[in-house]
Design a protein that fits this description.
Layout (H helix, E strand, L loop, with lengths): L26 E3 L1 H23 L4 H20 E3 L12 E7 L2 E8 L10 E3 L3 H6 L7 E4 L2 E15 L5 E3 L1
Parallel strand pairs: 1-2, 4-5
Antiparallel strand pairs: 3-4, 3-7, 6-7, 7-8
GO molecular function: DNA binding; translation elongation factor activity
Pfam families: GreA_GreB (PF01272)
InterPro entries: GreA/GreB_C_sf, Tscrpt_elong_fac_GreA/B_C
């Protein structure tokens, strides 16, 4: 029989499922970030166990296991960074800066902990990279503009009891 008349399996037409992308570079974390990753690992393990126990659809279980592999990899590769001294902009610092005439505070954290809306910026983000190792009062280049950012204040980030950062 000609191959033109054979029925192909439905699996041949499915989109491939890839692993969740791991951010490039080292997996630097704060103490809070490491705790969040460990919480995610536990939650994923519980979810997979529950799905298997209830006999969920295989596709749902595969998706949950994929997420579990991501968080397990992040936990295994996490590099806990020491607390910064606050003399220069570094991982784990809160930084007040002025850009385009507006002063703002950000805290530089790991990739998985980043939440720009909450002022938590990944150390790998262009804004954080531009300010790394700068001192208070220093002007740094950003976005192709010379001296676009003025570093106003640097403080070691403090973890508040409710799990959010505060400055100084």
């Amino acid at each position: 029989m000609s191959v033109a008349f054979r029925r192909e399996s439905d699996d041949e037409h499915l989109e491939p499922v890839f692993e969740l992308p791991i951010p490039p570079g080292p997996n630097l974390v704060t103490e809070r970030g490491l705790a969040l990753i460990r919480t995610q690992v536990e939650a994923c393990e519980d979810k997979v166990q529950a799905l298997v126990a209830e006999g969920a659809d295989e596709a749902v279980i595969k998706k949950a296991r994929r997420e579990q592999r991501y968080w397990s990899t992040r936990a295994a590769t996490a590099e806990l960074m020491p607390a910064p001294d606050g003399d220069t902009v570094a991982f784990g610092c809160s930084v007040q800066y002025r850009l385009n005439g507006k002063a703002r505070w950000i805290t530089i954290v790991g990739d998985d902990e980043a939440d720009p809306a909450a002022g938590l910026i990944a150390w790998s983000a262009p804004l954080a990279r531009a300010m790394m190792e700068a001192e208070e009062g220093e002007l740094v280049d950003f976005g192709g503009k010379a001296e676009a950012i003025e570093v106003l204040a640097i403080r070691p980030a403090c973890l508040a009891a409710e799990g959010t950062y505060s400055v100084g």
